[in-house]
Structures are given as structure tokens and as C-alpha cells.
């Protein structure tokens, strides 16, 4: 009984010492074993590791590729043109000892700040010697490679490797952007005014041509109508003349009947005339012939 009383605490102490001596490195991490702030062991492969309990500690760092978005900076290009530029970089820890010495206890957060400073120096260094047309053309990939190479050289002292750099924004400054928009708006408005003026001119030409065509066609139609009307009148006169020549008495009778029909048309027609008027010659004649004209005194 007394032996069990001593064995159980001893086993508990051994277990605690064992657990304090073991650490596990995940496949996504790297580890450094520190003793009083000094590096005594590197653990870059996943698995179990050993350390002195209560004296040594383990600090873990990312073994994966990390990303960094820089703050926007204003860069002066050749020709005094200015652009607001930011970039995105991918980097990875490759030298744990150098990384620990450069960043101290700040770790990845401190490294992000230092890398951001490096990129904000490399971007103006490269873009300051080029033109806006090149920055906005296909040569942009070559420029980003130059920025990457400069950042890679500077970042070696931090124990990291810059894998890639990409420019994510290349805009004009706000004041220049407003001026550019105003100039573009003025150009579009001028082009619109030119198009409206050309459209109005074309419409005027079409309208004038249409008016001229209307006048010409109306004149042609009137001339044709006058010709047809003249020919019809001539034909009518010819027919009347032939009819009069064949039987003047019958012709006069038909003309009188036509005059009666026109004059007496309607239900309330009223005529005030003398009974012996020539208009009633055929109505007063029993034979249907016009009364002979009275002889005039010699």
C-alpha cells in the first residue's frame, strides 16, 4: 500500500515530463526550439520532436506560401505622369534562423511589414524609369519580374523567398482622374454634337430633296391633268359639234332638257320667269318643237 502511494506520483511526474518533452510539428508548419531566446534546434519536417521540458520552448512558423497586399503608393513615371500603384506578392519562409533573427517575436506579421517596405521601395525604383504606355501594355509582366527580382534580393536577409509579384492597380491619382474624366466627357460631347450636326445636315438635305420631289411631282401631275382636261374638253366639243351638225333641232331639244333638269333639281326649287320666256319654248310647244321666233318689224 505504501509502495503504491509513492509509485503513482512518480508515474504522474514522469508522464508530465514526457509530455513536456514532446512537441508535434504539423505538415503546414515549421518549428524552432528556443532556449532562453537562443535557437538550439530546427524542425522543418512534420512529426514528433524533443526538447528539454520547462527550459526550452517551441515556436511555430508557416511552411505554406503566404500572400501580401501592399498599400497604394503614388509613383512618378517618365514624362512626369503619376500613377497610384499597389501590388500583391507571394512569399515563403525558407531560412528559419535568419527569419527569427530578422523578425524576432513578431513572426509573420513583422515579416509582412518588412516585405511591404521592400516592395514600396522596389516599385518606384522600377516604374520611375519607364513610361505610362509601357506600364499599361504587355511589357507590364517584364516590369513586375524586375520588381520581384529586386524584392527577392532584399528579402534574402529576412530568410524568406519572394515567389511572385503582380501589380493589381495602376490608376491615375484622384485629381488627375477627375481631369481625365472631364476631358473624356468633353470629347464625347463634342463628338455627339458633331454627329447631331451631321445628322441635322443630312436631314435637311433629305427634307429639301423630298420637298423638291413633291413640287416636281405635283407640277407633273397638274400638267398631266391640264393636258387630259384639255383633251377631254376638245373631245367633248368635237362630240357636241358632231351632234349639232347631224341634227341641230334635236341637239337644241336635248340641251333644253338638260337645262330643265338642272334648274328644277330638288323638291323646293322656285323659278320666277315670264311665261313667254325662251326657256319654256319646249314646255309650251305641243309638237315638241321650239316656237318660231317672232318676225321683227321692217
TrEMBL record:
Keyword Oxidoreductase: no
SUPFAM superfamilies named among the record's database cross-references: Band 7/SPFH domain
Protein purpose: HflC and HflK could regulate a protease.
UniProt xrefs under SMART domains: PHB
Ranges of residues in domain Band: 20-184
Keywords on record: Hydrolase, Membrane, Protease, Transmembrane, Transmembrane helix
Any GO molecular function: peptidase activity
GO biological process, one term: proteolysis
Record localization: Membrane
A Pfam match: Band_7
Protein name: Protein HflC
Recorded topology in the membrane: Single-pass membrane protein
Family per similarity comment: Belongs to the band 7/mec-2 family. HflC subfamily.
Main location: membrane
UniProt-listed Gene3D superfamilies: Band 7 domain
